[in-house]
């Protein structure tokens, strides 16, 4: 009887990412998530960084069961990170509650405006739009050889807290972890999204057929002079947690723009 | 001398979309924008609905000058809507000020949470991230045979007002236009983003090679019982204008989540 209750009350944790199902970051996140309960992995079959909230509507997508994480049900998907969450919810777990969606651990920062471009965060946001508690994790290290030990330790603490206390009002957390050894991480800062911009340029070249091409390159620059934001927290070796959401309304601008109603 | 001053003070309006450069909606928007001053069009060479804020980082993209709009410089791009804005700013108009970016007129609604998935709105948001006043326009009609007369009339009024008064604080407007004859539009409502969700399912099928596929389909359902939101405005045949932005922080949740700092 106890076993039965435990099973019914067990948590279903959906794990996804945007770096693809064989990235070290998702392996690290699965190792953390599986400590808590049942895990399902649905992740892209190829790297999808910078996919933002893209969804596939003009052509079909495919799912393939893969044996990547021992003892864990895992599927690779030909679509985007957001497609992975939609497929998990509507096909693989149809009718079953998802208690938590975790996305990542991303290889590279999703602090500041990077949340907008991030497939990792968009996958988590997609789950949050469905009322599912969701967390995106990112480590500030692009390398596939990155040390995930600090990230895993903090992901474990945060997942445990969220499973325990839930996210009653804000369904989405953007968690970024500094790229330093675990014992140099100073703790957690709950803060706002910092202001910054990408100073970009396009590398121009000529392809083998003689056609000109452009390839995006750039550097992130912080504009934020305050201390209560994610960029500042990370700079000081704190893990940043930004409660995030999908309502893009700028409320203070509504009265300022009411004059448009008289056009 | 007067001519010279006029030229120096002339506005540069960047026009883009996500339905592709030959969609009727962008033609309607170019016809409106060219009334005001110089126009540059950079738009995808194929439909890119649902691309969200996707950018192309893993491969190069191409630009091709096309003669689609008589007397207007226009380029088609192999990338996403956001790529189009980045290329316009960093390559085609490098060093020149863009006074306004208009995106659309989208074929279909971008009200409520559709702003998150929309390539049209993401292109406009990309420009707003660069401090450029930006407006995304959408008509609630998916058809390529849609009647754009009402949409053009209101786009013209709103563009004139924004060029005149600028958008000093909020750099991004999400404008949706009901799909009714121009004389049935009741006016403009400046409001917030409504709450809603997509009730989705995947059409399952088998491809010619015997592999199972999934194709996204769904229906938008409003959850919002209030009247001050874009869905309600559109239902009452008003044009909705939602001042929007890129800061996804849920500020009221910061104190609620401070307990995470003690983990």
Could you please describe the fold and organization of this structure?
The structure is a homodimer of 263-residue chains. The first copy, chain A, is of the alpha/beta class. Chain A has a single domain (2-194, 225-262), classed as Stationary-phase Survival Protein Sure Homolog, Chain: A, CATH 3.40.1210. In chain A, 27% of the residues lie in helices and 28% in strands. The first copy, chain A, has 8 helices and 11 strands. Chain A has helices spanning 2-9, 24-33, 81-92, 114-117, 119-129, 149-165, 230-235, 253-256, and strands at 12-16, 38-44, 63-65, 73-77, 100-107, 134-139, 172-177, 187-190, 196-206, 212-222, 238-244. A 9-stranded mixed sheet of chain A has the order 3-4-2-1-5-6-7-11-8, with helices on both faces. In chain A, a hairpin with a 5-residue loop joins strand 9 and strand 10 (212-222). In chain A, helix 2 packs across helix 6 (149-165). Chain A is globular and about 55 Å long. The model of chain A is unreliable at 1-8 (pLDDT under 50). Chains A and B meet through helix 3, helix 4, helix 5, helix 6 and strand 7 of A and helix 3, helix 4, helix 5, helix 6 and strand 7 of B.
In short:
The structure is a homodimer of 263-residue chains. Chain A is an alpha/beta fold. Chain A contains eight helices and eleven strands.
Q: Strand fraction band of chain A?
A: 25-35%
Low-confidence stretches of chain A: 1-8
User: In the CATH hierarchy, what is the superfamily of chain A?
Assistant: Survival protein SurE-like phosphatase/nucleotidase
The main sheet of chain A orders its strands as 3-4-2-1-5-6-7-11-8
Question: What is the helical fraction of chain A, as a range of percent?
Answer: 25-40%
Most extensive interface: pair and counts? Answer: A-B, 83 and 83 residues
**Helical stretch tally of chain A:** 8
- Overall shape of chain A: it is globular
Largest sheet composition of chain A: 9 strands, mixed
Distance between the termini of chain A: 68 Å
**Oligomeric state, counting identical vs distinct chains:** homodimer
